[in-house]
């Protein structure tokens, strides 16, 4: 919604939760941008097919849980990603959905497991750039806006001067 009301002329908003996708459609109507925003429901990139984007952003439910944690069904996915499988998919498949010079970003709360995120980013050849930290006034928790930059390392050449 932020992108649409600030001038992006085409926005695709997706979510695993049908309720979240329906809520986004209602918000688009409310903010007068329903011609700009299309919504889709499904697992990560599944609703967008082979489409590519100049900017991909996910405000993730950053908490790490074990795969079998029962509270991560339905609404639980808003705050937790079991096994960080969704984060792994987000980073593994992003290149197939970015335009040339397209940008990949993530909103990552302080409750997230940054070491695991770093490992997933490294595995899928992304550097993490910290852009901004936001503090929520009501609870004093923070969330970071991260950007992922392509790492030139390949499976054959494990050397990248910028990698930690
Ligand atoms: C912190 S909430 C963000 C909600 C809203 N988009 C926002 O920015 O305020 C994280 C969202 O990610 C969604 N999500 C979790 N796993 C997903 C997946 N595998 N594919 C698509 N969406 C997923 C959840 O359903 C939840 O709505």
UniProtKB/TrEMBL annotation:
Organism per entry: Streptomyces rimosus subsp. rimosus
Gene3D superfamilies: Vaccinia Virus protein VP39
UniProt-recorded name of the protein: N5-glutamine S-adenosyl-L-methionine-dependent methyltransferase
One of the GO biological process terms: methylation
InterPro entries: SAM-dependent_MTases_sf (IPR029063)
One GO MF term: methyltransferase activity
Keywords from the UniProt entry: Methyltransferase, Transferase
């Amino acid at each position: 919604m932020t992108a649409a009301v600030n001038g992006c002329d085409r926005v695709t908003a997706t979510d695993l939760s049908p309720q979240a996708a329906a809520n986004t459609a209602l918000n688009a109507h409310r903010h007068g941008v329903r011609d700009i925003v299309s919504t889709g429901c499904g697992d990560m990139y599944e609703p967008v097919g082979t489409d590519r984007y100049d900017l991909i952003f996910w405000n993730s439910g950053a908490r790490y849980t074990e795969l079998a944690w029962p509270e991560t069904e339905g609404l639980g996915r808003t705050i937790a990603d079991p096994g960080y499988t969704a984060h792994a998919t987000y980073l593994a498949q992003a290149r197939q959905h970015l335009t040339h010079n397209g940008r990949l970003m993530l909103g990552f709360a302080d409750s997230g497991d940054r070491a695991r995120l770093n490992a997933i980013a490294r595995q899928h050849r992304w550097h993490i750039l910290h852009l901004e930290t936001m503090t929520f006034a009501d609870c004093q928790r923070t969330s970071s806006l991260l950007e992922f930059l392509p790492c030139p390392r390949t499976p054959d050449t494990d050397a990248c001067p910028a990698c930690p």
